[in-house]
Specification:
It comes from Oceanithermus desulfurans. This protein has five helices and twelve strands. By secondary structure, it is of the alpha+beta class. The relative contact order is 0.21.
């Protein structure tokens, strides 16, 4: 018998959204939250009547350089937010920021800022190790910027729901009320095989019950949600799943789970417009393009770096 064929929705130019949905690491084994009822699909959706913001960031490696023999990284990070209200979407200008970092071993660069050209300033971040460790240090700065942006939105817009593109556990701990993160890709499972079987039964606009897990000393509440996909095709089972996550207490997690069903499915993108449809939500796709524009031209920055290095070499 021939195997049943299923197509991955995302363009092969992007990493597949499904790596694993079951067989979690022992320390990530989830526990269902009994207060959310039996382990069965949930369809109840709730509206969100307050301000609504999506937060995201873009990271780019501008260059790997050497300070004498020490490798160092030049990286740019842009963060921003898009707000939604009835009838329109808008950029929250006060939330946008572009920061550039020189990540170098301690003592390798003598000044707090590296400025190879007017308006091109890289803040020094001291970190040692291989290029992967340098990149990780720069990514920590990105996480801090995204979390700080969310804090600022909550301060300026009391009662706002802030949704982060990506799981919250990658961001530093901060105020948790009114914040959700959502994972488009599933690098690891949280459910055992019996629990994960439910995900294949979820229809568009349904979610799993809430479950909880810990990472380090932090507790999270999470659930899977299936987005609609038009036109329907024989796609892979996990092709339209989002995993939503919050670090808020259990009572707020149970309140926000129906809200996520009221907000996220109607914002699903479509394959003819986005290569990561439907998980790359429409406002997030627009925000990513705006952040890329604000990062500036990678080619122009590289040329200015080369001109600076050439002048220094004379």
């Amino acid at each position: 018998m021939k195997p049943r064929l299923r197509l991955e929705v995302w363009s092969p130019d992007h990493a597949a959204p499904e790596a694993s949905l079951a067989q979690p690491l022992p320390e990530l084994q989830a526990e269902p939250v009994a207060a959310d009822g039996p382990w069965a699909p949930k369809r109840e959706a709730a509206p969100w009547t307050g301000p609504l913001f999506f937060v995201d960031g873009r990271f780019r490696t501008d260059a790997l350089i050497f300070l004498d023999d020490a490798p160092a990284l030049l990286a740019s990070v842009a963060v921003g937010a898009v707000g939604l209200e009835p009838g329109r979407a808008f950029y929250e200008e006060a939330a946008f920021a572009v920061r550039r970092f020189l990540v170098a071993p301690p003592g390798a660069w003598p000044e707090p800022v590296f400025s190879p050209a007017p308006g091109l300033d890289y803040e020094l971040v001291e970190a040692g190790g291989e290029p992967e460790a340098l990149r990780a240090a720069a990514m920590e700065r990105r996480g801090a910027l995204e979390m700080g942006l969310g804090d600022g939105l909550r301060a300026r817009h009391p009662g706002a729901l802030v949704l982060h593109d990506g799981p919250l556990h990658r961001l530093p701990a901060a105020a948790t009320a009114g914040r959700l993160g959502f994972a488009k890709t599933h690098h690891r499972g949280y459910l055992n095989a019996e629990q994960a079987a439910l995900l294949g039964e979820l229809a568009a606009g349904e979610r799993s019950p809430v479950f909880t897990f810990t990472r380090g000393e932090r507790r999270f509440y999470s659930w899977y949600l299936r987005l609609p996909l038009e036109p329907e095709r024989p796609y892979a089972a996990a092709a339209t799943l989002l995993r939503v996550e919050t670090a808020a207490p259990e009572a707020e997690a149970l309140r926000l789970a129906p809200v996520s069903l009221g907000v996220l499915p109607r914002l699903a993108s479509r394959p003819f417009r986005d290569p990561r449809a439907p998980q790359n939500l429409v406002p997030v796709g627009a925000l990513e393009r705006e952040l890329g524009r604000r990062l500036g031209s990678a080619g122009l920055i590289r040329r200015r770096l080369l001109e600076h290095i050439r002048r220094e070499a004379v």
